Amino acid sequence: MIIPVRCFTCGKVVASAWEEFQRKSEAGEDPKQVLDSLGLKRYCCRRMILSNVDLIDEVMPYG
Amino acid sequence: MELEVKEFTDTSGNFVLNKTRPVLANALRRTLISDIPRMAIEEVEFHLGPIRGEDGKEYESITPLFDEMIAQRMGLIPIPTNLELFGFREECKACKGEGCPNCTIMYALNKKGPCTVYSGDLEPVGDPTLKVADEKIPIVKLDDGQAVLIYATAILGTGKEHAKWQSAHGVGYKFNPSISVNNKKWDGDETCIEVCPSDVFKVVKGKIVVKDEEACIYCMLCEESCGEGCVTVEKDTSKILFQFETDGALSSKETLTRALKLLEDNFSEVSSMAAKLK
Q1: Distance in angstroms (rounded) separating the CA atoms of residues B194 and B198
Q2: Do A61 and B136 touch (CB under 8 A)?
Q3: Whole-angstrom Cα distance, residue A55 to residue A9?
Q4: CA atoms within 13 A on the CB side of B101
Q5: Is a pLDDT exceeding 90 seen at residue B56?
Q6: Which ipTM value was assigned to this complex?
Q7: Which chain A residues contact residue B248 at CB under 8 A?
Q8: In this prediction, what percent of chain B has a pLDDT beyond 70?
């Protein structure tokens, strides 16, 4: 839906990294290096970003 | 117990506890997670009904997410915390729990679509230094004709009550690895040290040498693959490697000093009670 504010497991704020990750990985950068540069070192935080699908745009008109 | 600092940044702490025991490290871990007070949004008030824009356009107070979902997301945003200025609301002498500038921070959120509402759009009512530091957290997205008008109240709390008041994250420790190598028992096959996922070993002049002892994660793959007696991994429970992170509400240094102070206070309280026993 929308990127969760914090990592479910450890509680680190991950939401602020989402837009930069999306922009850079769409531009063709290696997702691994983007995650590293955003300071997401634990795999619990990395999966929050990697497994998110932004569906909020699809439901927006039905709000 | 001795504390040796390895690296401290604003949001992360990395240190070594010497001459200690696992129980003490665990007490510190639990205090860091659940006992240090910090600010978080607790009450959120939504304006319901039409919202008129400055241009005279009428917006609906409708969002793609449920109001409770937005309130939950706002609660998780790190709010700058100054523990010198703010106290717990229920212990507040100035207002007796009613809510006043000594125990609460008010935020206003006024946004009209189409846009993304960010944590940086939260405007503190009064002191502008209380603006949220992490401005890029998306709270909700708004379509054309949608708008939000929200008043939020942040109060002090601890991680015991809700995870949004948890000060330290990713808190963990491990015992200091002590790795010894008996090269006489090594058969000369380098694949047995290449199995190490943390790259602890290297080979120098036909001998296995420990390169980075602290990187060891106790997977014991080296002990298994090198054969009996060649590599021995032991845990030194009197030396503990400790690390934690904070989210910017409190600095890592303040979080740690608060945790140690709290532990000291709690233990001295127990010991003074125990002294009164007959």
Answers
A1: 10
A2: no
A3: 22
A4: 5
A5: no
A6: 0.92
A7: 13
A8: 100
